[in-house]
Amino acid sequence: MFGGFSHSVIGASHEATGLVCQDHSAYEVNEHYAIAVSADGHGSKKYFRSHIGSKFAVEAALETVRRFYMEPERFEQNFPANHKMIIKNIEKQIIVNWNARVQRDLEQNPVKLDEMKKFTKEEFQAIPKESYYGTTLIVAVSGKGFQFGFQIGDGSLVALFEDGVPVMPMNYDESAPANMTASMCNSNAASMFNSFYTEHEKVIAMYASTDGLYTSFSNEDDFLEYHLIITGQLDRLETFEKSIQKNLMKRSHFGTEDDISLACICDRDLLSEMAPVLRQKAADSKSHAAERKAKRLAALRNTD
Description:
Helix content is 45%, strand content 20%. The chain has helices at residues 12-17, 50-68, 72-78, 83-108, 113-116, 121-125, 211-214, 220-231, 237-254, 268-303, and strands at residues 2-9, 23-29, 34-40, 137-142, 147-152, 156-161, 166-167, 194-198, 203-209, 260-267. The model has no long low-confidence stretch (mean pLDDT 90).
């Protein structure tokens, strides 16, 4: 049985400047699959509808995966042998879906004068209309017998498989050319995705998060340990959700000051079995983290 959660919280820097939250996230579970999605609208001024673009990206991802699963048994039978082609098709369809939503929004809500006032006439005319809505996208999907994920732009996908070790399974190949932000709004967006697929291990949980979460940690070890700790509490999901939302709010205000989104999907049956082991691993990891911190402080003192 699948479970999950998703939360998006506004960063302190956005609250201070009167900006809306530019992140969006969601999850969906049913008997055949679970999907977690997060998106982060770009912050530069030409992306002035990016908070809408991130919402469209999440909606497009959910709708597209849902459509591919319309005949679930057939999909589950065909996917393992053809996963590379099918994942690419899913990515392309998400881009098409997203662009259709953008075009529809522009028709229904033409650009207003107050949205143009930050630009000269020449500057505004040089911006591609899709760029108004520019956003990243991170997607994690767990099905029957396989898992896969993909993303465009920054952010993180973290998975915990049966061994209970948190990893970032994506192979990042720097798909975006130098000085170009990998974004849903790019004309060649479909070629900018990174992805992963596995059918050899059961997954306990997968997480899709925007970069505001990663940058709230001082190093990657602490970031991964965070996912181990919260996975150890997912067997109490109903009571845990309130505390994770408060924690994300705290991290967004006293850490990165950026918006943060975190979406999760999990195997609740496997969690029930693994929860005591995960909590012990988390305790051991905290001890190792304390040792790492002590070594860093000692090294800093030695350089004084």
